[in-house]
Amino acid sequence: MKNVYENEMKLEFLSKSSNESFARITVAAFASQLDPSLEEIADIKTAVSEAVTNCIIHGYEEKEGIIKIKCRLFANSIEIEISDNGKGIEDIEKARQVLYTSKSELERSGMGFTIMESFMDEVKVESVLGVGTKVTMKKMIKVSDGIEEMEVKL
Amino acid sequence: MKVEYKKKDKLLILKITEEIDHHSCEKIKKRADYEIEIHIPKKVVFDFSNVNFMDSSGIGMIIGRYKLAKMFGGEMELINVKPSIKKILEMSGILKLISIEETGGSEFEKCI
Hints:
- Chain A is an alpha+beta fold.
- Chain A has a single domain (7-153), classed as Heat Shock Protein 90, CATH 3.30.565.
- Helix content of chain A is 37%, strand content 26%.
- Chain A has five helices and five strands.
- Chain A has helices at residues 19-31, 38-59, 92-96, 112-119, 145-153; strands at residues 7-14, 66-73, 77-84, 122-128, 132-140.
- In chain A, strands 1-2-3-5-4 form a five-stranded antiparallel beta sheet, with helices on one face.
- Chain A is globular, with a radius of gyration of 16 Å.
- The mean pLDDT of chain A is 92.
- Chain B is α/β, with parallel strands linked by helices.
- A five-stranded mixed beta sheet of chain B has the order 1-2-3-4-5.
- Chain A binds chain B through residues 17-18, 20-21, 24, 38-39, 42, 45-46, 49-50, 53, 56-57, 106-109, 111-112, 114-115, 118, and chain B through 19, 21-23, 29, 53, 55-57, 59-61, 63-64, 83-84, 88, 91-92.
């Protein structure tokens, strides 16, 4: 039962920085079906923005490429998979370290993976040099307050 | 971005009017640097009242402008920061260097 998802969507777009807001807003709109709180929505938007920015800056190094997003909704969680066919990460452990950035000349803060890890419940990174990178994130969505209140009344 | 400079107090107020991500940061950085360099303010204030979203690109942007302002002997302050953005600022540790002010009856109220 655990792996049965209730809804799914796929998105494909060019690695242009102007698509960063498109990507996070689209994922947030899809996630809203689970009736998340404003804070949960903000967390999802931020994590998606970080992952997509990584694809653009690091995966494709600001050259043109395709970024794919796959989202699955489960009864009380969302799974977001963001992938590129860019250059890949040489040392994933290092990339995930707080404040580590390979692009300090761009004033990057090195907080990307740290934010994804603290805003989402699970973050998995798979990468093959020269082939691409896939980040899979999962977030639990609490059952909305409305339902709990109704149960109390009954 | 809306820019206001109070000559008397050497106060530069930069009101950001869009979501802050890697895309919008380039534009914000350029404009902010230009304003800091021509005014050499004693204090740079970023007004976040119209900012509903910021990712880690914003952290890099703020630190960069802080360094520039500091180089000219100025300080920095952030005002009207929403909770979701404050969460990221807190995580980054930059609040040890830059203060967040809740506005209300301060000198900025009149300016903004």
